Amino acid sequence: MAKVIFTAWKNKSQLAEVRSEFYPSPSYDGPDMRSHACAVVEAWKLRGNVPHHVEATALLTDAILHDDAQINSIFSIRATYSAAFCRFVTGLVDSKVQGPRKTMFQRAMDLGLPASFVELRHEATHREPPSLVVLRKASQRSLEWLWDNYWAEIDDLGAVSNVDRDDSASVQCALTRVLREFSTGTRSTEQPKKRKRDQEISVSTDLISICGESIEAVRLLPTVLLDEFLLVGSERRIGESMNGHFEKWDPVLQKITEHHHSFLMYLSEELVHKLVFDVSRESPRDGVAEAYFLWLTHVLTSSSWESQQPYCSRSYILSACDENPNYWAKMLSDRLREHGGVRKNKSSAQRSSQGPSAKKIASQNGDRPVLSGVDKKLLAHGWGPVEKWDSRPLGVASAN
User: Where are the stretches annotated Disordered (predicted)?
Assistant: First the structure.
């Protein structure tokens, strides 16, 4: 007996029409129909049986349309973005779903959802709402994820679904070919004396080009690097030096990160997943697991990666280590927290070294700060130290 499926739309062409309004083609030059698409989804919700992916697309799109500081306050814009993003993530990784009990991070891994989404959702829910820059970027990435994981695969346009799958396979093959050639040193160069430098430039250019043509390539690149054991020898033994691998791959990976910041986030997340959640890598004598550990500590703590380190989700890596504290997870967590503590102590030492002189200057000037050249310019425009601070709460009238 055929299975009956109830949908909020009458036929698939209606769903395809709404999709074209949410995601217009690059050649479309008509009016913006996204607001109409949100209204249609709202009407569908009255009928029920609206998939979470469709509702989340409408919420995120509506938040983007709400982003107008001339009409709405910044606080309301941030709140709208946060609510839409949190509902999108929570609806996907809610721990109350059927099946084995899993954490939100584990559910996100199963669904292919970036782990940083779960971290940002936690921040928006339990802490101060993230900045508008972060929320805008997260909303755009969420809409891209929804396209790849729902809208591109609706049955009405099966041809598009097949093309997307073929593109992913071809992109992965292209990445694998370029990386293997560089790893084995078979890429041709015209200047033997500069062969190493030429190969680095050549492979970086090719990989950046592939990632520029396909959003999927940025996410697939870390997977290919690790699954092919290109960053780590598959037969590596415990205690072997990783300096050769760092020297070989650092220039390439850093160049890619400069052009595609999200690459380093995907790479660090993929490394920590291999290290923390792969039960086959829990042994303290596993040379490959040690290599993953060394790569993560190298990227997150070394001075050569300092300018790119903000693109890593450091707090998520620590959360993942705390979630499954095996041998390598504890090692990584201790190393990262120790490194963070050293930087904090260093800054504290700098402040303490400046303290006596600052106090001396303050005492010489009657506890009033010395005005620098910049401060004097501010004084010319009406800025300066207050003579007497009035600590009355806002709205309380003066006694005079």
Answer: 340-370
Q: What percent of the chain has pLDDT over 90?
A: 29
Distances (CA, A) of 318 to 188, 215, 267, 332, 352: 41, 27, 15, 8, 29
CB of 31 within 8 A of CB of 70? Answer: no
CA distance 334 to 279: 20
143-146 CB contacts, 8 Å cutoff, 24+ apart: 143/22, 143/23, 143/57, 143/60, 143/61, 144/215, 145/113, 145/114, 146/53, 146/56, 146/57, 146/60, 146/88
The string of DSSP codes covering 339-362 is: HHHHHHHHHHHHHHHHHHHHHHHH
Global confidence as pTM: 0.52
Percent of the chain with pLDDT over 70: 76
Q: Dihedral, CA atoms, 283, 227, 139, 125, nearest 10 degrees?
A: -10
DSSP result, 189-220: -S-GGGHHHHHHHHHHHHHHHHHHH-HHHHHH
CA–CA distance, 126 with 21 (Å, rounded to integer): 34
Question: Each residue of 189-246: pLDDT tens digit?
Answer: 444 445 677 788 888 888 988 887 776 788 889 989 998 889 988 788 999 999 999 9
Residue 367 burial by Cβ neighbours in a 10 Å radius (0-12, 13-18, 19+): exposed
Residue 229 exposure: Cα atoms within 13 Å on the Cβ side: 7
Task: Give the residue extent of every domain in the chain.
Answer: 12-95+108-153, 167-342
Alpha-carbon span 140 to 103, nearest angstrom: 25
CA distance 299 to 17: 45
d(CA 264, CA 309): 8
